[in-house]
Design brief:
Distance between the termini: 41 Å
Number of strands: 14
Structural class: alpha+beta
Strand content: 25-35%
C-alpha cells in the first residue's frame, strides 16, 4: 500500500507537468495541497507468529524522493491555523502489569503506557518479536534503523499463546493511534495488552555539507527583492525521518536542472531545504522536504498549520538545512 501511495504522488506531479496544470504546493498548506496527497493508510505489525518484518529499504525511499523532487518546481503562500479538540485515549489497563513496571530506555521518553491497543500509523516501518517484555530490546532495534523515531511495545494474545512485539515508526505517535485492539481469527479472538509507546529524545542528525537550524514552523520563503526569482523549488514527501534523504534529493534536483537549463543558459540550484513532520489531528502523517534557491532563517518559519473539513494539520520537528558551499548568484547558475 505504501508503494501505491508513493506512485500515486509521483503520477499526480508528473501529470501536472505534462498537461500544464498547477501542482499542489506545500508552502500553501491549503485544500489544494492536501487534496493532492493520497491519504496514507495507518499500518502496524501484523497478527500472527512471524518473528520480524521486512528490512527498511532506504534506497527505494531515496529513489521515490528524488523522483518527486525533480518533477516539481513551484512557488507557495501562507497557511492558517485553528484549534480542534484532543482525541480520546484508548482504554488503559487497570492494574500493575509489565507495561507499568517497564524501564524507559536511555535516549527515549514514554509517550503512553498500559493500553489495550497497538499503534496503527502511516509512518509504520517494520516490526520484531522479542523474548521478554523489555523496552531496551525494542530501542536497540529502533536505533539500528536510521529513520526510526518511535516504537510500540505490546503483548499479543493469539490461539498459539502470547507473543511480544515491537513495531517501529518514522514519526512519533500518540495514544490516540493505538487503535488496533485485536480481531477474530479462525474462531479465536486475538487481543492486545500492555501497549507502551516510546519516542526518541535524540535530535535529528547533522547532514554532510549542510548547516542546520532548529525552526519553530515550516519555512514560507519569499523573494528578498521584487526582481528576484521565486526561491521556492517544490517539495518531496518521504516515508522516512532522515534529513539526509532530503539532502540527496536537493543535490539531485540541482543536477537535474543543470541538464535542463533555461533558454538563457541558466539553471536553478538547491541551496537550502526545510525538513519537517506534518501531523494530522495530532498523529504523524507525512515527512516533507521543501527546497529553495537561497537560505532562510527562523524568521521565515511562519507556517504552523492548517485546518480543513474538521481535520487539523500541524507542523513539528522542523529544521532548516543550508548548503555550506552556496551555488550561483541567488541560486541561479550560469551553465
Amino acid at each position: 500500500m505504501k508503494a501505491v501511495a508513493i506512485l500515486t504522488i509521483m503520477s499526480l506531479l508528473q501529470l501536472s507537468i505534462v498537461l500544464g496544470m498547477p501542482a499542489a504546493r506545500p508552502q500553501d498548506l491549503t485544500d489544494e495541497f492536501f487534496n493532492g496527497l493520497p491519504d496514507p493508510e495507518p499500518a502496524g505489525a501484523p497478527f500472527g507468529t512471524e518473528t520480524s518484518g521486512p528490512a527498511v529499504d532506504r534506497s527505494s525511499i531515496i529513489d521515490a524522493a528524488v523522483a518527486q523532487a525533480t518533477a516539481l518546481d513551484s512557488p507557495g503562500a501562507d497557511p492558517a491555523l485553528t484549534n480542534n479538540p484532543d482525541p480520546t485515549e484508548p482504554e488503559k489497563l487497570r492494574k500493575r502489569s509489565p507495561s507499568s513496571d517497564a524501564v524507559t530506555p536511555s535516549g527515549y521518553y514514554l509517550v503512553f503506557s498500559s493500553l489495550n491497543g497497538a499503534t496503527q500509523a502511516p509512518s509504520y516501518l517494520t516490526f520484531k518479536s522479542i523474548p521478554t517484555y523489555d523496552p531496551s530490546l525494542c530501542a536497540a532495534k529502533c536505533n539500528s534503523i536510521s529513520n526510526c523515531r518511535f516504537f510500540n511495545l505490546y503483548i499479543e494474545i493469539n490461539a498459539n499463546g502470547q507473543i511480544i512485539k515491537c513495531s517501529f515508526y518514522s514519526i512519533r505517535s500518540t495514544a490516540s493511534s493505538a487503535i488496533n485492539v485485536g480481531q477474530w481469527r479462525n474462531g479465536f479472538h486475538v487481543t492486545i495488552n500492555n501497549s507502551n509507546g516510546y519516542a526518541k529524545y535524540q535530535p535529528y542528525p547533522p547532514v554532510d555539507g549542510f548547516m542546520v537550524e532548529t525552526l519553530g514552523g515550516a519555512i514560507n520563503g519569499r523573494r528578498l527583492a521584487p526582481g528576484d526569482p521565486d526561491p521556492y523549488m517544490g517539495y518531496t514527501s518521504i516515508e522516512a525521518s532522515d534529513p539526509s534523504i532530503c539532502s540527496i534529493a536537493c543535490e539531485k534536483k540541482t543536477a537535474y536542472n543543470s541538464r535542463h537549463p533555461s533558454s538563457e543558459g541558466t539553471y536553478r540550484a538547491c541551496n537550502f531545504f526545510n525538513f519537517y513532520h506534518l501531523y494530522k489531528n495530532g498523529e504523524g502523517y507525512r515527512t516533507i522536504c521543501s527546497f529553495y534557491l537561497i537560505p532562510f532563517d527562523s524568521s521565515y518559519a511562519t507556517n504552523h498549520g492548517y485546518s480543513s473539513h474538521g481535520d487539523r494539520y500541524t507542523i513539528a520537528e522542523s529544521y532548516g538545512y543550508t548548503r555550506i558551499v552556496q551555488q550561483g548568484d541567488g541560486g541561479i547558475v550560469a551553465s
